[in-house]
Amino acid sequence: MRQWWQQGSPWVWFSASALLVCLGLFMALLGLIAVKGMHHFWPAPLVQFQLTEQSRPQLGRLVRSVSDRAERKDRAYRLVDRGDLIVDASSQLPGRYLLLEAHQLLSDRPKQAVWVQLQDGRTFYGKQVGQETAPSDAGLWLDLGMAAPVLISAVEIRAYWLPNQLSFRQKGAVFWQEWRYFLTASPSQNQSAGGIFPAIFGTLVMVLLMAVLVTPFGILAAIYLHEYAPKNWLTQLIRTSVYNLAGIPSVVMGVFGLAFFVYVLGGSLDRLFYADQLPAPTFGTPGLFWAALTLALLTLPVVIVATEEGLSRLPQAQRLASFALGATQAETIWKVVAPQAAPAMLTGLILAIARAAGEVAPLMLVGVVKSAPQLPVDTQFPFIHLERKFMHLGYHLYDVGFQSPDAEVAMSLVYAIGLVLLTLILLLNLSAFFLRQRLRRKYRLID
Amino acid sequence: MQTTVQTTMQTKVAIHEFSLWLQHQQVLDAIELSIPANQVTALIGPSGCGKSSLLRAMNRMNELMLDCRSQGQVLLDGQNIYQSETDVARLRCRVGMVFQKPNPFPKSVYDNVAFGLRLQGQRSRRRLDEQVESALKQVGLWSEVKNRLHHNALTLSTGQQQRLVIARAIALQPEVLLLDEPASALDPISTLKVEELIYELKAAYTVVIVTHNMQQAARISDYTAFLNQGRLVEWAETHTIFTQPASQQTEDYITGRFG
Fold first, then answer.
1. Residue B156 burial by CB count (10 A; 0-12/13-18/19+): exposed, middle or buried?
2. Checking DSSP bridges between strand B95-98 and strand B176-180, what pairing results, if any?
3. Do A114 and A217 fall within a single domain?
4. Measured between CB atoms, which of A319, A324, A443 is closest to B97?
5. Number of domains chain A contains
């Protein structure tokens, strides 16, 4: 025991368990988001319920079981989604989600239960009572628990299936189909239905634009600081300040972006080039370009720090070799130093992208909106519309989760959006990572 | 003795009253030395005696260090290279340098040798091919690498890498070649190859070599200069230095009594 202690073994265990705890938490986070996010697209069974003994049986989607801790443990509730209701005098209870007690649920899971979503994003659960095949008004007759069945026209229907009849494999097919729809469609029904394509696209375009803006500035600044600047207290002061810039709260950057980029720069641009459209602003209003610029400013220190570290890791012998062959300092930097520091520059870019893609607070001030009518890139000249407002996954997540009137709709959707955002950042990072590995192999220094 | 040397030999580099300070520390004190053309001159002396600084003074590499100040003249073919109008990049093409540890660029063998040539504006593929081949042949590396010219130079052995960086330096056809302990990081066989190479190189170039190894200096150099504490103690034909040194310090050093 004494020996075990003296050899420092406790430290091994101590540090290993710290790592284990970190990894565990991390896996828990990823697992929760992945499972809940995936669950959103898995067809849930439809159940039949009765609000009172006298009322008509209705159909609903079983969301989950809820146990009320405050009351007796055995009193379990089921949360049921009734879908978007067609307002009718006979539907007494408002609200889409109901908490039902066990006796209100009917044991029967009707095979004819239909899940149907319309093009506009409304969802209905009902019992199929007939099919209209006449070409003029083909559609489904559904019993929605109201006095009379409702005909839902085929042209209005985006998708429908009978979840209680689906085999596991068929459910899988529905799952993938719904994922694809989610990733490629625009939101509808006040963000609670439809897809998130504009948000994905907006995030990507904004992050790429940010990368294009921050990379040259950051790299050039780092090269000046490390290769050209005299090594004195002023350079050291500037370096320390740049490093500390990384600690500025992002929302403060957003305020700066709004005050300086949008109103000062954008306002001047408007007066100079778009005077005929004033007072309606063109660039003097939050938009894609200002958001990308604000995030570029936010991530600039990250790129500078990473590049400088790469530059200082490069052996001095490489620079001397180049000078001894008659290279000037500029030639040395461009032909010897910069290529070998490229992996470090890419590391900086990876970190910048990871930071920027997840940033929401400053964007709310400088260009992100709840719902943008147009994408920032389209087929109209000049193709990239830098002045347009855009949607962003992070903001969309916040909006759906915390600004939506219906918390229950939002819940599983929030996980799904979170999963997409995580995957997007992962993909961005992975591509930069592989690029960096390729460069590393190319410039691998033996010994 | 020394006067006969200077009259029969043409002087390539003449160092005149040269003093050097690095970070306010004097490392060279009024050095007076002539480097004869097409001969191998060895600079020997204990660690920190300033022999490497003296070597770097001949292509102004000291200026890349922090806080460097010099005084006096270094004449290359009678021209003071410390004049303000000297083109330093051009000077370093005329005075090539090889370092203690092989430092090839992490590029292909070919690109390493062609690096200096390309900087000089050589764009013709055919001319580059010829010059690269000729440089590699001069260092005896051609037969070893001709089938992997486009492999990364870092895959070569240390000895090959050192010969490669010598080839990289002589591809520019310098007039003077400065070697800073070129064999100290190599194994005995590679060392032997590099020594033979240096011996051959003196036909075309003026070679100045810094070495810690007395036997090496005796084997390959024609002239030897002994430095101690920033001063030039003795300079003569190698044979003379090793058999009848004029100064007691030199004798103590080469017989291993100090340093």
1. buried
2. parallel
3. no
4. A324
5. 2
Q: How far is B3 from chain A (nearest CA, A)?
A: 33
Question: What is the CATH number for A316?
Answer: 1.10.3720.10
Q: Please choose, from the candidates B174, B139, B200, the residue with its C-alpha nearest in 3D space to the C-alpha of residue A325.
A: B174
Measured between alpha carbons, how far is A350 from B181 in angstroms, rounded to an integer? 42
Cβ atoms of A115 and A130 closer than 8 Å? no
Which residue does chain A place closest to B161, by CA atoms?
Answer: A446
pLDDT exceeds cutoff 50 at B108: yes
Range of the domain at B61: 2-254
Distance CA A429, CA A355 (A): 11
pTM of the model: 0.82
The count of structural domains within chain B is 1
Q: How far apart are CA B99 and CA B47, in angstroms?
A: 16
Residue A168: strand, helix, or coil: helix
CB of A331 within 8 Å of a chain B CB? The answer is yes
**Lowest-pLDDT range, A261-275, A288-302, B223-237?**
A261-275
Interval A325-375: pLDDT, tens:
989 999 999 999 998 898 889 889 888 988 888 889 999 999 888 877 778
Predicted complex ipTM: 0.90
Dist CA A302 CA A312 (whole Å) = 16
C-alpha distances (whole Å) from B132 to each of A443, B127, B149, B170, B173 are: 22, 9, 10, 10, 11
